[in-house]
Specification:
The chain has helices spanning 6-13, 51-64, 90-104, 123-137, 157-173, 193-202, 251-254, 267-277, 286-297, 301-314, 328-331, 333-344; strands at 27-29, 32-35, 39-45, 71-73, 81-85, 113-117, 141-145, 177-183, 205-212, 217-225, 234-239, 244-248, 283-285, 318-321, 324-327. The chain is an alpha/beta fold. It folds into 2 domains: 23-254, Rossmann fold; 262-344, Arc Repressor Mutant, subunit A. Helix 2 packs across helix 3 and helix 5 (157-173) packs parallel to helix 6 (193-202).
């Protein structure tokens, strides 16, 4: 990054009030805004859950200008699309590439897309290469499969923050959108390490892919959308008659629905979701808080009012004073209070 004086930083960061138009979405799912310029999103899932398959539907839509399983990727005609692969061998990638060509019904991929295989390189080299590609090719979207490989240690907080700042920088500097694939931890179903946690907190949209092994059905759902309301989960299954993946019923919708309970979430899941809505503002009045929590948990306002908010206050995750709600995680006051109680015991 070019060296700047603090005066230059302040000058370029000053917000000028005016009519800010909503940028044209780069990616929508069932009409909901998923990705716009100057942003990145995450798609997480366990290995073999078909994260890459869903990613290829994003790419296929960009190359054909058509929707694929309710996914629409809109890029200006002739805009470049870059795919960065950090994991696969050339043989495995070739099989994946064959699937993409079959999906768009072409024998050869158009020049609009370029793919780079960086499996053998150190993370720092890959990061430098990605920025150079963005500078030279001027793509509209970059797909990174898999973001975890950009870190030597995804649990290292400094390294994780560096990668997130890198994503913020290149999306802003080159006016692009980035789609990042991430692994989930098998033991707790969270995105891997501090890198995964930081990525989800900074992303415009957080999507998750799960697989139902009994029905061999993969489902794409949203955990968080900053720019729109949630979309209904999308499920796909391989159709041997059509020799391709096709939309199918969501296994979760066919199963008996569980009654909503905060016990269905781990402490970390709750803290992550509440932390996201307080990331860009320190406090909420009641109505905006209800709206934000309703969106982040994907439930109705009645449940938010009667269950979620009382639970968060009781657990000292939220603090309420004079009609203003604050998050203990922003000031560590909740941790301090719990530590004090622990010492008294």
């Amino acid at each position: 990054m070019e060296l700047q004086t603090i005066e230059q930083v302040i000058s370029t960061s000053l917000f000028i009030d005016g009519d800010i138009k909503q940028p044209q979405p780069l990616i929508t799912i069932d009409g909901k805004i998923i990705l716009t310029e100057n942003n990145f999103i995450t798609i997480s899932g366990l290995p073999k859950s078909r994260k890459t398959t869903f990613m290829q539907f994003f790419i296929a839509s960009a190359l054909t200008g058509k929707d694929h399983i309710k996914i629409s990727t809109n890029v200006p005609k002739g805009s470049k699309i870059i795919l960065i692969d950090t994991e696969q061998s050339i043989f495995d990638f070739a099989k994946q590439n064959k699937f993409l060509k079959k999906t768009i019904e072409k024998n050869k991929l158009p020049d609009q897309i370029k793919a780079y295989l960086f499996r053998q390189y150190e993370p720092e080299v890959i990061l430098q290469a990605i920025e150079k590609i963005a500078e030279i090719e001027k793509p509209k979207i970059i797909f990174i499969d898999n973001l975890t490989e950009l870190a030597m240690n995804p649990n290292d907080m400094v390294e994780a923050k560096k990668i997130i700042m890198f994503l913020k920088k290149i999306t802003q500097k080159y006016n692009i959108g980035v789609v990042c694939l991430l692994h989930l931890n098998k033991s707790n179903s969270f995105t891997l390490g501090n890198l995964g946690s930081y990525a989800d907190r900074a992303a415009q949209s957080v999507l998750k892919v799960s697989i139902d092994k009994e029905s061999d059905t993969s489902t794409l759902e949203c955990t968080m959308l900053r720019s729109d309301a949630h979309f209904e989960p999308i499920s796909i299954k391989y159709d041997p008659e059509q020799n391709k993946y096709a939309l199918t019923d969501n296994p979760a919708e066919l199963a008996p629905k569980k009654k909503f309970s905060m016990d269905n979430y781990t402490d970390k899941e709750i803290s992550t979701r509440v932390g996201i809505i307080f990331e860009h503002q320190d406090s909420y009045t009641y109505a905006p808080l209800v709206s934000a929590l309703t969106k982040i948990f994907g439930i109705g306002q009645t449940i938010t009012k009667q269950t979620i908010i009382p639970y968060l206050i009781y657990k000292k995750i939220l603090n309420s004073k004079d009609g203003v709600y604050t998050y203990y995680g922003n000031s560590n006051s909740g941790e301090a209070e719990r530590a004090t109680k622990s010492k008294k015991k």
